[in-house]
Amino acid sequence: MKVIELSRGIGINNLQMAEQPKPNPKQREVLVKIEAASLNYLDLLVVKGLVNPDIPLPYIPVCDGAGVVEANRIHPVIDKIFSFEQTQAAFEYLEKGSHFGKIVITF
Predict the structure, then answer these.
(1) Spelled out in words, what is the top-level CATH class assigned to the domain 1-74?
(2) CA–CA gap between residue 68 and residue 66 (Å, rounded)
(3) Angle (CA) 55 66 35, round 5°
(4) Which stretch of DSSP H or E encloses residue 103?
(5) Hey, where are the domains in the chain?
(6) Which of 5, 9, 25, 78 could form a disulfide with 29 if both were Cys (CB 3.0 to 4.6 A apart)?
(7) Helix, strand, or coil (residue 10)
(8) Distance between CA atoms of 87 and 105, rounded to whole angstroms?
(9) Percentages (nearest 5) of helix, strand, coil residues in the chain
(10) Residue partners of 83: CB distance under 8 A and separation at least 6
(11) What is the pLDDT along the chain (107 residues), one digit of tens a residue?
(12) 96: Cβ–Cβ under 8 A, 6 or more apart, which residues?
């Protein structure tokens, strides 16, 4: 797969295109085919060495991306079922981070 990485050191001039092997997801991981990515402000601070200057190289500086799940090693689990009237409670449940799988909202 093609990546933009830091491999020779810190600094914007050290960003370069490279080829990396396609990763295989481990247990409880997903492989996402990235369709869009950005080099945002935090990424630029890392690239410039202003944040986490001792980052191990090679490093792919992408905090934000969007894509499609290509492969997964996660077995979907439904934690809880909410009725439509309980939609607010469902969002609060998800915000707490206490869920492990999926929730279902019935209509």
Answers:
(1) alpha beta
(2) 7
(3) 100
(4) strand 102-106
(5) 1-74, 76-107
(6) 25
(7) coil
(8) 7
(9) 20, 35, 40
(10) 105, 106
(11) 888 899 888 999 999 999 989 888 887 677 888 888 888 899 999 999 999 888 899 999 888 888 877 876 665 555 667 777 877 777 777 777 655 555 555 65
(12) none
Cα separation, 105 vs 33, in Å, equals: 28
Q: Are 37 and 65 in contact (CB under 8 A)?
A: yes
- Rounded to an integer, what distance in angstroms lies between the CA atom of residue 57 and that of residue 44? 15
**For 23-37, what is each residue's pLDDT tens digit?**
888 876 778 888 888
* Two tokens, residue 13: 């001039």
Side chain identity, residue 12? I
Which DSSP string do the residues of 54-88 spell out, in sequence order?
Answer: T--SSB---SEEEEEEEEE-----EEEEEEGGGHH
Q: CA nearest 87: which of 71, 57, 107, 68?
A: 107
Closest of 23, 22, 5 to residue 14, by C-alpha: 5
